Amino acid sequence: MPLTAIALNCSLKKSLGEASSTDAMIAVLKEHLAEQDVELAETIRIADYNVPPGVTSNEGEGEGDDWPAIREKILSHDILVFGGPIWMGQIGSVAKRVLERMDAFTSETDGQGRMPSFGKVAIAAIVGNEDGAHWSSAQLFQSLNDTGWTIPAGAACYW
């Protein structure tokens, strides 16, 4: 069975029909994944959705939280491409919001104590300078590791 990937674009701006630098980085990874017979099925621009703050899988009582549907899409793939810009020396606030929402995984374990992300891989597509990218990937990978994702060696790409 072929592997599939999904990308989260955590750009700080809504799409409004315009590509972002993060889209360009995700496109590079899409090409490289295709060379390994991995289909990048979809890119979700988080800023286009209502993802309120919180640490549960559904914060939408009366607000129309879009996270539950996004979460379901993420978990239906083998690989997560987590993309975002560096802003003020760190990963941007939209990416941090996604990581906060993934915190719910720690309490959503199965009968064997495994989080929903068990057996799934995450890689990073970071837009920013080298020093900021190293710091941002460290933050990102620690958070993803804490929420059950497998982080392979060399999993961060940046410019």
Summarize the structure in words.
- This protein has helices at 21-35, 67-75, 93-102, 130-146, and strands at 3-9, 38-45, 79-87, 90-91, 121-127, 156-158.
- The chain is α/β, with parallel strands linked by helices.
- The chain has a single domain (3-158), classed as Flavodoxin domain (Rossmann fold).
- 34% of the residues are buried.
- The model has no long low-confidence stretch (mean pLDDT 94).
CATH-scheme architecture:
3-Layer(aba) Sandwich
| Overall CATH class | Alpha Beta
Kindly identify the CATH topology: Rossmann fold
Q: Could you tell me the mean pLDDT? A: 94
Terminal residue distance: 32 Å
The tally of domains stands at: 1
What radius of gyration results from the CA coordinates? 15 Å
| Helix share bin | 25-40%
Low-confidence stretches: none
Following the backbone from N to C, one meets helices and strands in this order, namely EHEHEEHEHE
Task: Please provide the count of β strands.
Answer: 6
- CATH homologous superfamily annotation: Flavodoxin domain
Name the structural class. Answer: alpha/beta
The main pleated sheet reads as: 6 strands, mixed
Gross geometry: globular
Q: What portion of residues belong to β-strands?
A: 15-25%
Count every helix, treating DSSP H or I runs of 4 or more residues as helices.
4
Q: Gist?
A:
32% of the residues lie in helices and 23% in strands. The protein has helices at 21-35, 67-75, 93-102, 130-146, and strands spanning 3-9, 38-45, 79-87, 90-91, 121-127, 156-158. It is globular, with a radius of gyration of 15 Å.
